[in-house]
């Protein structure tokens, strides 16, 4: 789809408008004075003092117009040049314009830079994510193709044929799980659910120890809350946890929730990678490495966050969710 374009037609520049307004402010009272003079003064001639005052007023008006125009148009033109540079140079071009002008224009410039930073981050994320998706899809597809070609051309026993069929089914299941995770991630990024839920409601029926403000409503819909806490609880069980404890506490406008377990924990080498898409230590058993990424995206869509806390044993996460 073509990018929307502003209709191309003649438009006055800001400088033209400024000059026109100030000249109107000058000319209108001057014309009124001349009109009254014409009504009351038969000579209808202006003295040197009046002419000098009018000339000074005209010069001051022009000077004010020039200063005002440069104060406004200079920063705007600088912002336009910066936008064009960012479009060509990406992140390297995201620097403050050389002119900021008034407070409002400085705020506009900063908002533009923040938006550009987020868009570049998003572009880089999409590029990296696409590369990961391509790699993750390629592996099982290649395996399925290899098994299918062997089944078509090779002479083999019934047991060998069954083994290759099992491989095809396993890789197909892996593809299905991966596509389901991608769908859930898309929903987490785009679908901001309405409604509220408490921690106690989100983990209802789960064998976990609750403490603190677990009945306080969060600005997180019931389905989203169940998805977030359900994923974290499943992660704990999959890594050998026998006890899971959840503690919640108010922190200004946020609810700080800590979920800790006595499982295997996270090794030092993996601590910085667990939120990366497709990172998993359970690939052989069907893990897609998307669970924590989905949790983080879902929380971010609702104004929340999640971090891994340092622990001597087990694993602990801290969630921050806006209060309802």
Give the SSE map.
Elements: H1 14-40, H2 48-89, H3 103-153, H4 158-190, H5 199-202, E1 209-212, H6 222-238, E2 244-251, E3 254-261, H7 291-301, E4 305-309, E5 316-322
Parallel strand pairs: 1-2
Antiparallel strand pairs: 2-3, 3-5, 4-5
Helix pairs in contact: 1-2, 2-3, 3-4, 4-7, 6-7
Walk me through the structure:
There is one protein chain. The protein has three domains: 14-101; 128-190, Signal transduction histidine kinase, dimerisation/phosphotransfer (DHp) domain (Helix Hairpins); 199-322, 2-Layer Sandwich (Heat Shock Protein 90), CATH 3.30.565. The protein has seven helices and five strands; from the N terminus they run αααααβαββαββ. The chain has helices spanning 14-40, 48-89, 103-153, 158-190, 199-202, 222-238, 291-301; strands at residues 209-212, 244-251, 254-261, 305-309, 316-322. A five-stranded mixed beta sheet has the order 1-2-3-5-4. It is elongated and about 115 Å long.
What's a concise summary of this model?
This protein is an alpha+beta fold and 324 residues long. It has helices spanning 14-40, 48-89, 103-153, 158-190, 199-202, 222-238, 291-301, and strands at 209-212, 244-251, 254-261, 305-309, 316-322. The chain folds into 3 domains: 14-101; 128-190, Orthogonal Bundle (Helix Hairpins); 199-322, 2-Layer Sandwich (Heat Shock Protein 90), CATH 3.30.565.
CATH architecture of the largest domain: 2-Layer Sandwich
Compute the number of strand runs: 5
Count of the separate structural domains = 3
The third-level CATH topology of the largest domain is Heat Shock Protein 90
Kindly state the percentage of residues in helix.
Answer: 55-70%
Report the biggest beta sheet as strand number plus sense, adding barrel if it closes: 5 strands, mixed
Give the termini distance in whole angstroms: 39 Å
Please indicate the percent range of residues in DSSP E strands (runs of 2 or more). 5-15%
Output mean pLDDT.
80
Instruction: State the name of the first-level CATH class of the largest domain.
Output: Alpha Beta
Report the principal-axis shape.
elongated
The tally of helices reads 7
Order of helices and strands: HHHHHEHEEHEE
Secondary structure class reads: alpha+beta
CATH homologous superfamily placement of the largest domain = Histidine kinase-like ATPase, C-terminal domain
Return residue spans where pLDDT drops below 50 for at least 5 consecutive residues: none
> Spatial order of the strands in the main sheet?
1-2-3-5-4
Oligomer: single chain
Our Rg estimate from Cα atoms comes to 33 Å
């Amino acid at each position: 789809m073509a990018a929307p374009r502003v209709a191309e037609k003649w438009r006055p520049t800001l400088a033209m408008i400024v000059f026109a307004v100030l000249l109107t402010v000058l000319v209108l009272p001057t014309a009124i004075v001349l009109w009254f003079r014409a009504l009351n003064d038969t000579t209808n001639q202006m003295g040197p003092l009046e002419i000098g005052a009018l000339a000074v007023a005209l010069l001051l008006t022009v000077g004010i117009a020039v200063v005002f125009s440069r104060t406004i148009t200079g920063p705007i033109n600088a912002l336009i040049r910066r936008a064009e540079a960012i479009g060509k140079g990406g992140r390297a071009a995201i620097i403050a314009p050389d002119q900021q002008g008034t407070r409002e224009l400085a705020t506009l410039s900063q908002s533009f830079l923040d938006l550009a930073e987020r868009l570049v981050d998003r572009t880089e994320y999409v590029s990296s994510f696409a590369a990961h998706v391509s790699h993750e899809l390629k592996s099982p597809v290649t395996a399925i193709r290899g098994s299918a070609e062997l089944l078509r051309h090779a002479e083999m026993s019934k047991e060998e044929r069954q083994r290759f069929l099992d491989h095809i089914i396993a890789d197909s299941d892996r593809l299905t799980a991966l596509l389901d995770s991608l769908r859930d991630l898309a929903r987490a990024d785009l679908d901001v659910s309405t409604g509220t839920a408490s921690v106690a409601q989100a983990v209802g029926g789960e064998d976990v120890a609750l403490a603190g403000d677990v009945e306080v409503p969060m600005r997180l819909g019931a389905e989203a809350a169940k998805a977030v806490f359900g994923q974290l609880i499943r992660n704990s069980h999959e890594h050998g946890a026998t006890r899971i404890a959840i503690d919640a506490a108010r922190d200004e406008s946020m609810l700080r929730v800590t979920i800790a377990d006595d499982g295997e924990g996270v090794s030092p080498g993996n601590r910085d990678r667990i939120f990366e898409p497709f990172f998993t230590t359970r690939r052989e058993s069907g893990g897609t490495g998307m669970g924590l990424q989905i949790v983080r995206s879902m929380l971010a869509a609702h104004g929340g966050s999640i971090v891994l806390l340092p622990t001597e044993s087990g694993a602990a996460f801290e969630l921050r969710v806006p209060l309802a």
